[in-house]
Amino acid sequence: MFRSTMKTLFVLLPFMSLAFPSPAQSADTSCSLLGTKVDGKCVCDPGWKGEDCATMDLAPVAAISGYINHTYASWGGRPLFANGKWHLFATEITLQCPLILFMNNSQVIHAVSSQASGPYSKRATVLPPFHHNPTAVGPTPDGYYLLFFIGADQVNTQIDCSRGIPKRCTRDNNFCRGKSNPVSNEAITMAYATSVDGPWKTRVILPRNPDNNTEEWNCGNNNPSAHVLSNGTVVLVYRANPCTGKGGESLGIAIADHWNASYVRRKGGPIVSPNDGTGNHEDPFVWADARGNWHIISHDQSKGNVCGSADNHGCGAHLFSRDTYSWTVSKNPAYSTAVHFTNGTIGRLQTRQRPQVIFSTDGAMRPTHLFNAASFEGNNPDLNMLTHTMAFAFN
Fold it and tell me: Could you give the CA distance from residue 284 to residue 224 in angstroms, rounded to a whole number?
């Protein structure tokens, strides 16, 4: 077992797997820790491209796949492979409502496919409204499957949109959420089970406003993503914001010695914030690569984002670190709104968020598929369109 100190944890990381390359193969920071320098240029790892290796090398698509329900909106998720099938855990918005009514109608569903890219068919509702933004991890070294998400049961708040969106559910009326948003929208919960089919037990791991200071940068916690190390330690990355609604979106880290132990927020400031000049970062997805380096893909929005436009609602940023303490934002985006089709055309997503990645199982941690919550029809606040959970294969 590792000692509880973070210094010991990250000093020992390079020795935790036989898959780590020798020092001669160490990645270069100018290649975003996703490639090596040869003759002054980056030679990118499989799955990555560009002058700094920060751009996802996504394959052209013949048609959009994933979890596409033409009646119900969905909002991203991540599949796990178990029992010969792919099991996607995703956000779905009930009763034919659009995404913007998620605080009333969002639930977590389980969908299944024989292929990683789908199409996925819904099998069951795992967590009823209000539960949102799940990230699935597992199996852990001791055989558990984990779901990290926000929300708590409040099924009596659902809005029925089957005959159209109620006229009262406008932005001016806070989209029918009442005078305030649910407190559970800013607290992170974990569900756990020994099977992807459950039964699932839950517990809150990062409560809202633990320091009794609504102006603290991490008073509210959202968008959880976790990576489980081979010794069972969990590194959790989350979006953080003051509970006052001011201060923008930052990213923070919490550590647990075991998935069922206490999750302790790392003291100090965020790993990235709007004050750093790279926009607001949310929807983080975290992983450690085969070399032991750390990476995050985030949805990067507002002024200063790496895509160069505050109006871009589909910008993916890549962050990298050798130790999880010092992080760098790559200068080039991981992805944009562009979707390349096999017929040579390019489609433009109006929104592309909630990035989550699945990797090869050979120890190389080669990315195989990117999942996004996305829509070609409009941005996520729009009332008259549905968002979907889309899968994109890497070359």
Answer: 7
Residue 314 to residue 310: CA distance in whole angstroms: 10
The Cα 17–Cα 381 span in angstroms is 44
Query: Which of 48, 43, 36 lies closest to 318, judged by CA?
Result: 48
Closest CA to 326 of 252, 271, 374, 273: 271
Q: What is the pLDDT of residues 273-296, one digit of tens each?
A: 999 999 999 999 999 999 999 999
What digits encode the pLDDT tens for the residues 137-183?
999 999 999 999 999 877 678 999 999 999 888 888 888 887 777 88
Helices and strands: H and E segment counts in the chain: 2, 26
Q: What is the pTM of this model?
A: 0.92
- 3-state SS string for 217-253: CCCEEEEEEEEECCCCCEEEEEEEECCCCCCCCEEEE
- Cα–Cα distances (Å) from 180 to 98, 111, 156, 183, 282, in that order, read 20, 32, 16, 8, 21
Q: Are strands 234-241 and 250-256 parallel, antiparallel or unpaired?
A: antiparallel
Residue 169 tokens read as: 């559910």
Residue whose C-alpha is closest to residue 57's, from 65, 72, 47, 67: 47
